[in-house]
Design a protein that fits this description.
eight-stranded mixed sheet, binds aspartic acid, 14 helices, six-stranded antiparallel sheet, binds magnesium ion, binds adenosine-5'-diphosphate, single chain
Length: 456
């Protein structure tokens, strides 16, 4: 039993979907395929939603363009008999999106619920295409509407899944299709709330969908197919010499993802780890590469150290009125929880709670809750850099050398998010890329020195 998730670049066009079909055909046993929208489509739909209120004609024209992209991909099917049905389905999804565009225009602006409804079209289109391509290649495939499977709360844009309801739906809808030897195909990222309204799990959330479904199925492995050879020791767009990590613990993978390693949505790990299901990150362009295996046993490579960075952060500081008391920190944390502030990392003191959060956080709700007992200050324009790995735990000198690299750069917060195997620093945006490259270089040369010492 396997769940295979393909990201936006791995379903971007007919060629990519052809590679997906080969990968799925090469896997034995029960297979469930979870797909993202075609690369760039979610961004485009978000832009269309933004356009709808002030220029509905432009929004509809742009939507037609996105539909045509999908219709063109469908044109590459080998058996033309399937075309009319698929074409009608693709156009039906576009009509639904057009109604949403009209609703946004009529309301004079968008809302999180309308945006979710609109952007869900991306995964509905892609999953219909992928199911058709699998069938076209002679692989019995069954498309299932992911909104009937992934049940969530009503928090549009960042909905929280209801595992129990999702598990029930997987038993009712997915398992019977697998039992008939069909490959099940679902869109990632999307679900439905308590009122059946369409919800989404947050950007990059198809990984999370795959992990949830994998956990509900008690899959043997969850495969995340993307455009790089696995999880690398740094973002390859930032660091040229980044290398593939062969194995990672759940905890280290989650820390790297939380601190910006975009290759994996940070919430992916939790459902997989809860049921001890390995996650493997693989390259859909180079399927014979082994990728990165993430499981409970941890890194096979004790000497590894990786660096990630996450931009767009703000430092939120709650400072006690007066000198604070033993209850200050817990009141501060309770206020953060009640205001639904997602904390990335933080420091706690008797009279100060400082946390790094996404800069798009709604701070007003927190101000209302906390201003009675604390001053609330927000500093934006920050990024976090995080080094992760067994090497950091085994060799404390690495932490010292990381601090030495900072020179006169300002540090707004220091934390050890994954215990001794991680070090996170919140710094000014302008310092972040240089710092990632320097930390990575320093770890890499340290590692090379060790390897030389062992060899001689
Ligand atoms: P997908 O569309 O397949 O979900 P994403 O764009 O979300 O793919 O994630 C893959 C990208 O993540 C890579 O192309 C790479 O640029 C970026 N990335 C950032 N950090 C890392 C890392 N440590 N290892 C691998 N890729 C990373
Ligand atoms: N299509 C969604 C996004 O672009 C979800 C995903 O790709 O995982 O965020
Ligand atoms: Mg992704």
């Amino acid at each position: 039993m396997r769940v295979l998730k393909f990201g936006g670049t791995s379903v971007a066009d007919a060629g990519a979907i052809g590679r997906l079909v080969e990968i799925v055909a090469g896997r034995r046993g029960c297979r469930t395929v979870v797909v993202s929208a075609l690369g760039g489509v979610t961004d485009r739909l978000l832009a269309i939603g933004g356009m709808a209120a002030h220029d509905i004609r432009a929004a509809k024209a742009a939507l037609d363009g996105v539909l045509e992209r999908h219709v063109d991909v469908a044109g590459a099917l080998a058996h033309p008999g399937a075309h009319p049905m698929l074409d009608a389905m693709l156009r039906g999804i576009a009509r639904g999106a057009e109604h949403t565009v009209e609703a946004i225009a009529a309301a004079g602006g968008t809302s999180p619920a309308l945006m979710d409804k609109l952007i869900a079209a991306g995964e509905l289109w892609s999953s219909r295409l992928v199911a058709a391509f699998l069938a076209d290649a002679g692989i019995p495939a069954q498309w299932i509407d992911a909104r009937h499977v992934v049940h969530t709360d009503a928090f549009h844009g960042h909905a929280v899944p209801d595992l129990e309801a999702t598990e029930k739906a997987v038993r009712r809808l997915v398992r019977p299709a697998l039992a008939l030897d069909r490959v099940v195909v679902l869109g990632g990222f999307i679900g439905s709330g308590p009122d059946n309204a369409t919800t989404t799990l947050g950007r990059g959330g198809s990984d999370y969908s795959a992990a949830l479904i994998g956990a509900c199925l008690m899959a043997d492995e969850i495969e995340i197919w993307t455009d790089v050879d696995g999880i690398l020791s740094a973002d390859p767009r930032v660091v040229e010499g980044a290398r593939v990590l062969s194995a990672l613990s759940y905890e280290d993978a989650e820390t790297l993802a939380t601190f910006g390693a975009k290759v994996l949505h940070p919430k992916t790990i939790e459902p997989a780890a809860a049921r001890d299901i390995p996650v493997r990150v693989l390259n859909s362009r180079r399927p014979s590469e082994p990728g990165t295996r993430i499981d409970a046993s941890g890194a096979s490579d004790e000497g590894f150290a990786a660096v990630a960075s996450r931009a767009g952060l703000a430092l939120l500081e709650l400072t006690a009125h007066g000198r604070g008391d033993h209850a200050f920190a817990s009141r501060g944390l309770q206020a953060l929880a009640d205001a639904r502030v997602t904390v990335i990392v933080g420091e706690i003191h008797k009279d100060r709670v400082a946390v790094a959060v996404d800069s798009g956080t709604d701070f007003d709700a927190l101000r209302k809750l906390a201003s009675a007992f604390a001053d609330v200050q927000v500093r934006s324009g920050l990024s976090a850099v995080c080094a992760v790995g067994g090497r950091l735990a085994n060799d404390p000198r690495l932490v010292t050398s990381a601090f030495a690299l900072l020179d006169d750069r300002r540090i707004h917060l220091v934390a050890r998010p994954g215990g001794s195997s991680a070090l996170a620093l919140v710094v000014d945006d302008r310092d972040v890329h240089d710092l990632v490259a320097r930390l990575h270089d320093s770890f890499a040369s340290d590692r090379a020195r060790d390897a030389q010492a062992v060899a001689s």
